[in-house]
Amino acid sequence: MKFLIVLLSLVLADNGCSASKINQDAISLEYSARSRRTFKHIIITKKSISVVNNSGETPIIKSCPKTDWETILKTIKPINVENIPSLKAPSEKRFFDGAAIGNFKIIYNGKTYETPSFDHGNPPQEIAELVKEMLSISENIE
To answer: Total domain count for the chain?
Structure first.
């Protein structure tokens, strides 16, 4: 059954149909990094980008440019969201204050898919490109 779902996903992806069937207004991506000295929280939806760089600060909220959203969708396409909760962190520096604690989640139609914590700057390979894109987009918010 899983093979059939994966095969169907690939066929739809190749036909360019998958993005049109996704309710893009129901997708929200969140990334956070926390440590004693670091705080970053990013939320990206089709309509907005919210960034908080320091704990207790008011978020900077801007509209999400169409090009950024399309890049996010392209980057998220190969990710199997069902597997997100079981992703393994490639390193463990966060256990001894060697790195901030990173967390990532996708919320789609009210259902949350969240990773276990990982080192900020070294996310699981499956979401690394997406996290990098989110961080890049957030750096351009002023």
So the answer is: 1
